[in-house]
Design brief:
By secondary structure, this protein is α/β, with parallel strands linked by helices. The protein is built from 13 helices and eight strands. The strands form two sheets. The protein has a six-stranded parallel beta sheet, sandwiched between helices. A two-stranded antiparallel ribbon has the order 6-7. Strand 6 and strand 7 form a beta hairpin. Helix 6 runs parallel beside helix 8, helix 9 crosses helix 12 and helix 12 packs across helix 13.
Length: 361
């Protein structure tokens, strides 16, 4: 494989960054459509309007329907055409961002991403999850490039509920270990290219940042405080993890999440399940005990799950159902050296749960 490295053309992060939106994006056009979640509009609209006030640019806000569905994307495309939009922006969580990415892609326009939470690494990636109009999964849509601009207002992130920051740390926790295994196995990245040293360095920095700043960042955001620790974790959750996963690849941790979506009783956020899946992957790798314990301790310190019960799963027999889905053809778990069977994964999940319960005792 040819080695490949992709990232957003521009990444901006900091206190009250929304006030700099016009200056950072004026090269993208003079007519902007902001596709917002309801909470995203509430958190960002006033500062966006202030940034564009008196400028030679038109802005329009639309509340999207809650899912990045085919019908909702078409509705936004119709608005783009009717109003001569030059740039599409997504404001909110993953679904608003995915709707904006898809709308911009189909209309051949640049896209601006403004995340209002740091719960996943989706803002920087070159793909979207698309749903059917009934809410069921349709497809992954892969783009020829990553977003043109990702603008993160740290004040908005710090004022969001702390559970989103913690979930983002869980999603970011898998980044280094999944990329490391993909590199060892010579498996492709999410962008279907070989893995560069640069990508692995970003993934390692992501993990190191979580260990150094994670617990203090959580304590600060619980009080809606913006500190250097919070800035560091925002960057880890959104940029380092996003660019790292895109260029480093996925493995067991994300397959565990996909598998657990088969269990209705699993109530944990995406990032929380990925964190537990990272522990499972380390057991399958037979990783050094010190490394495994370091990851477990991190999860304990920031409030990520180390047991099945903490994710809402109380019947051990149900693990086999999740394991079967996690090992389906095409899943990233097959990037493991030597591969993994559903039976092997079931045993590793139950072993991780047992170790976690011992730590909680």
């Amino acid at each position: 494989m040819l080695k490949l490295m992709r990232a957003p053309a521009k990444y901006i992060q900091g206190k009250d960054a929304l006030l700099s939106t016009y200056g950072e994006t004026k090269n993208l056009g003079t007519s902007f459509l902001f596709i917002c979640s309801r909470s995203g509009e509430k958190a960002c609209r006033a500062h966006l309007e202030q940034s564009f006030a008196g400028k030679e640019a038109a802005i329009r806000f639309e509340i999207f329907g809650g899912h990045s569905s085919e019908g909702e994307i078409q509705r936004m495309r119709d608005i783009v055409r009717a109003h001569g939009i030059d740039c599409v922006a997504g404001v909110g969580g993953g679904s608003a961002i995915d709707t904006a990415k898809a709308t911009a892609y189909y209309e051949g326009l640049p896209v601006l991403v403004i995340p209002t939470v740091s719960a996943t690494d989706a803002p920087c990636t070159g793909l979207s999850v698309i749903y059917k109009d009934d809410g069921s999964f349709s497809k992954y849509l892969f783009y020829p490039k990553n977003p043109d601009v990702v603008l993160v207002d740290s004040t908005v992130i710090a004022n969001a509920p702390v559970k989103f920051l913690v979930a983002g740390m869980g999603d970011a926790l898998g980044t280094y270990f999944e990329a490391r295994m993909c590199a060892r196995a010579k498996a492709p990245s999410l962008e279907n290219g070989g893995i560069t040293r640069s990508a692995l360095a970003l993934c390692r920095l992501c993990y190191e940042t979580l260990l150094e700043n994670g617990a203090r960042a959580k304590a600060a955001v619980e009080r809606h405080l913006l500190t250097p620790d919070v800035e560091a974790i925002i960057e880890a959750n959104i940029y380092l993890s996003g660019v790292g996963a895109d260029n480093g690849g996925l493995c067991v941790a994300h397959s565990v999440y996909n598998g657990f979506t088969a269990l209705e009783e699993c109530t944990a956020a995406h990032g929380s399940v990925v964190a537990f899946g990272t522990i499972v992957q380390l057991l399958l790798e037979n990783a050094p005990g010190a490394e495994l314990r370091q990851v477990q301790d991190f999860c304990l310190n920031v409030g990520l799950p180390v047991t099945l019960a903490e994710m809402g799963v109380t019947d051990p027999a149900r693990v086999a159902v999740a394991a079967a889905k996690a090992c389906a053809p095409g899943e990233s778990i097959h990037n493991m050296i030597g591969d993994v069977t559903p039976e092997e994964l079931t045993d590793a999940v139950l072993a991780a749960d047992g170790l976690g319960r011992a730590l909680r005792a």
